[in-house]
Specification:
The protein is α+β, with helices and mostly antiparallel strands. It has helices at residues 2-14, 23-29, 48-58, 125-134, 139-152, 157-163, 170-180, and strands at 19-22, 38-43, 60-62, 74-80, 83-89, 92-95, 98-101, 109-115, 118-123. The protein contains seven helices and nine strands; from the N terminus they run αβαβαβββββββαααα.
Length: 188
């Protein structure tokens, strides 16, 4: 998977696309899970056309299963040398109390790795904690991130604070507050 990731990064970087790795591959990066079965790319809406042009050069666009909970502005599924790659811009999750728009700006990229001289940007655990808490059947991923942040501390509290400005279920708000204010009663 690393060789595919490097190929993607090389193409997106040469076009100046603002992008970042998220999903399970982010969890692998932080040693929270052992493996990822696909690559999730978050892309700035202003760069989606360039990103799709680059992905078309290295992979085949494939039909993705639709999920009514995801109402993202742009979603494209590719297969690159047998690896599934999801590219999302304007990532939006519909939930019981509204729509949560995954923030994607310069603050979202909290780490950059360099492999063979190719820069790989990674999105934040804090942003993915909120996203996973809102996704059905991904609660276990939220629990893993929450436990990690609870144990080792929140590195980007401002990202959780800005998440609180969007419509969120009360249970999600309580869990975020428990991380931001660990001296108060914890919700696990």
């Amino acid at each position: 998977m690393e060789s595919i990731l490097l190929k993607i990064a090389e193409h997106l970087n040469k076009r100046g696309v603002h992008w970042g790795i998220g999903g399970s591959l982010l969890l692998v990066r932080h040693v929270l899970v052992d493996t990822a079965r696909d690559i999730d790319l978050i892309v700035a809406e202003s760069d989606i056309t360039a990103a799709m042009d680059e992905m078309a050069q290295i992979g085949a666009r494939d039909v993705a299963l639709e999920n009514p909970a995801f109402i993202s502005r742009h979603f494209a599924h590719y297969v690159v040398e047998g690896i599934d790659v999801d590219m999302i811009a304007g990532f939006t999750i519909h939930h019981a109390t509204g729509d949560y728009v995954f923030p994607f700006d310069d603050r979202t990229i909290t780490e950059k790795a360099s492999i063979d001289g190719i820069e790989i940007p990674y999105t934040s655990l804090e942003d993915w904690l909120v996203a996973y808490m809102l996704m059905e059947k991904r609660e276990w991923k939220a629990d893993i991130i929450w436990a990690h942040l609870h144990r080792y501390g929140v590195n980007q509290p401002e990202l959780l604070q800005r998440a609180l400005l969007q419509p969120l279920p009360e249970a999600v708000v309580e869990r975020i507050h428990a991380l931001l204010h660990p001296s108060s009663e914890s919700v696990e």
